[in-house]
Design goal:
2 domains, 1 helix, alpha+beta, Immunoglobulin-like, ten-stranded mixed sheet, single chain
Length: 169
């Protein structure tokens, strides 16, 4: 009789232990599933340091500036009349950062216009990067564009980004 009671107690303890372990595993799985997207996005997307535009600017009249701490980017576009499907020459002068890479990213502000990224080329012995691209056709006639210059010193540094707006036909 005592053997049966001891056996029943040991079975009850084993069942309680299995239940507790099952609860911990379930709770752990829920936490992993809940936090996994956050951890994946941190590993795949580097942080970007955003520069602020210095003042209200008009790229049809000249260069626009953005600054963060010691880093400053000046962007200009030629010709000064911006039209779809016509070559535009973008020039970015990057000071306060020994950039090893610079990219121009063009996006429609209020409408997705596809991916339009251009690697900029550094002029020898300067801090001036340039490239040529075209704006996609907009069926609404006039559109606000955002030109972002994204630069970094090397693969290990956090990229910087300066965004400038302009209107094109």
């Amino acid at each position: 009789m005592i053997d049966k009671i001891q056996w029943a107690k040991s079975m009850l303890q084993a069942t309680n232990l299995k239940t507790i372990i099952g609860l911990f595993l379930t709770f752990g799985a829920i936490i992993i599933i809940w936090k996994l997207p956050h951890f994946l996005s941190l590993s795949n997307t580097p942080a970007v340091r955003e520069l602020s535009t210095v003042a209200q600017c008009d790229l049809t009249k000249g260069a626009c500036y953005a600054k963060l701490d010691e880093v400053e980017i000046a962007l200009s576009i030629e010709p000064k009349s911006f039209s779809s499907l016509k070559p535009l020459h973008f020039t970015a002068e990057i000071n306060g950062l020994d950039a090893t890479e610079a990219i121009l990213d063009l996006q429609g502000k209020e409408m997705y216009m596809g991916i339009n990224q251009t690697s900029l080329t550094l002029a020898p012995d300067t801090r001036v990067w340039s490239g040529v691209t075209e704006l996609a056709v907009c069926t609404t006639g006039s559109m606000i564009w955002q030109a972002s210059i994204i630069a970094r010193e090397n693969d290990q540094t956090t990229p910087i980004k300066a965004t400038f707006e302009f209107v094109a036909q």
